[in-house]
Amino acid sequence: MPDDKILIPRSIPLTPVSPRLPVKPAEQNKAAGFGQILEQQIQKGKAVQFSQHALQRLELRNIHLTDADYHKINQAVDKAAGKGAKESLVLLDNRAFVVSVRNRTVITVVDEANLKENVFTNIDSAVIM
Fold first, then answer.
1. pLDDT tens for residues 66-94?
2. Is the model's pLDDT at 11 over the cut of 80?
3. Considering just the CA atoms, what is the radius of gyration of the chain in Å?
4. Which H or E element spans position 104?
5. 121: in domain
6. Structural domain includes residue 31
7. What is the pTM of this model?
C-alpha cells in the first residue's frame, strides 16, 4: 500500500502565507484620482465640439467664431477641466458659451444682446477669457 504522507526536510523553513491586506481608503482615492487625471490628460487638447443646438444658436444669432475664438474656448475648457468642473460658463468677448467640460461640447451660445438679465443654470464654474 502506498504511503500518502509528504515528507518535508526540516532544513527548509516554512512561513505562513498572509492573506491579502485590504486597500486603505486613502490608496483607493489615489487610484481614483489617477484615473481622473489620466482621463483629463487624454481629453486635454481634443477640440471642443458644438452640439446641434449650439450650432443653431450660432446661426440664428449670426455669431461668427474665428480660429482665435476656438483656441480660447479650448483653453477655457482645459482650465475648467483642470479644476474638476463638469458644466462651465465660458465668457468670451461679450458672448457666453455653456460647455459640458467632460464631453468637451458647447451646449448653447448666447450673444451680447441676449446676455442681459439671462440666468444660467446647471453650471458649476465660470471661465472668463
1. 999 999 999 999 999 999 999 999 999 99
2. no
3. 27
4. none
5. yes
6. no
7. 0.66
